[in-house]
Design a protein that fits this description.
With 271 residues, this protein is an alpha/beta fold. The chain has a single domain (3-264), classed as TIM Barrel (Alpha-Beta Barrel), CATH 3.20.20. The protein is 51% helix and 13% strand. The protein has helices at residues 3-14, 30-42, 62-73, 78-89, 103-109, 111-121, 137-145, 160-169, 190-204, 217-224, 234-242, 248-266; strands at 18-24, 48-51, 97-101, 125-128, 149-150, 153-154, 174-177, 208-211, 229-232. Helix 2 packs across helix 4, helix 2 (30-42) runs parallel beside helix 12 and helix 10 packs across helix 12 (248-266). The longest helix is centred in the C-terminal third of the chain and has 19 residues, at 248-266. The radius of gyration is 17 Å and the shape is globular. Residues 181-185 have low confidence and may be disordered.
Length: 271
């Protein structure tokens, strides 16, 4: 059982929901990424999605695009992302880390080399935005051989056949994109999410996390009542962007604690 799967199993036993924050590796700079990851965990994160910065993202809104630009301008690369995860693992052997990004840097490195390097660094899974299951069989084989989870996206427009496809190809959890748009967009349709999540669970048989458009404790709690995990990215990146460097870890941890408290209220966990 992978670290990701055991985390979800433990949370299910406890009646709690997973909190999955996203940050971009190298934003605001490479030296702060590991401290930020530890701050996320201290604030209540159960799993971290660590963004691999890319120059031409297709699913990221302006906030995360700016984070990638800042990281790339300071020399962040896929190889350096592995170094960040290795450093994080020196003090945290429990929290799963999923790399989230795009195909180009992986293809430039080579599938097998990437998968083995990720495993060696302590990565638990990968989510490649522009790899649908029918177009990445070779990559999936390398990821599985390395013992990593491959997480796929589902959209509001996904069919039940797509649910089956990602269930067969993926593992760990599924990421349901709650809106038709890019990261950071608003206008969550909670009724539609409530209709879709049980159907996905019934077909896929694995935990479902919901992301895009979750910005505060109220929206996180509403999503947590429907899904197995809440994914928050743009709002955290905004906090990083707006905070003085000396305060960024404290501010991010404080923000996370508010979300964690709201989610734990669903299970009656005292704050």
């Amino acid at each position: 059982m992978s670290r990701t799967q055991s985390t979800f199993q433990r949370l299910q036993t406890e009646g709690r929901k997973a909190l999955i924050p996203f940050i971009t590796a190298g934003d605001p700079d490479g030296e702060l990424t590991v401290p930020l990851m530890h701050a996320l965990v201290a604030g209540g994160a159960n799993l971290i999605e660590l963004g691999v910065p890319f120059s031409d993202p297709m699913a990221d809104g302006p906030t995360i695009q700016r984070a990638s630009e800042r990281a790339l301008a300071k020399g962040m690369s896929l190889a350096r992302v592995f170094g960040i995860v290795r450093e994080f693992r020196k003090n945290d052997a429990i929290t799963p880390v999923v790399l989230m990004g795009y195909a180009n840097p992986i293809e430039a490195m080579g599938f097998a080399v990437f998968a083995e390097a990720a495993k060696e660094a302590g990565v638990d899974g990968v989510l490649v935005v522009d790899y649908p299951p029918e177009e990445c069989a070779e990559f999936t084989a390398c990821v599985r051989a390395a013992g990593l989870d491959q997480i796929f996206l589902l959209a509001p427009t996904s069919s039940e056949q797509r649910f089956r496809d990602v269930a067969l190809a993926g593992s760990g959890y599924l990421y349901y994109v709650s809106i038709k748009g890019v990261t950071g967009a608003a206008h969550l349709d909670f009724d539609e999410i409530a209709r879709r999540i049980p159907r996905i669970r019934a077909v896929a048989g694995m935990p479902v996390g919901v992301g895009f458009g979750i910005r505060d404790a109220e929206s996180a709690k509403k999503i947590g009542a429907l899904a197995d995990a809440v994914v928050i990215g743009s709002r955290i990146v905004e906090e990083i962007e707006a905070s003085p460097r000396a305060q960024v870890c404290t501010n991010v941890e404080t923000f996370m604690r508010g979300i964690r408290t709201a989610l734990d209220e669903l299970a009656g966990v005292p704050s």
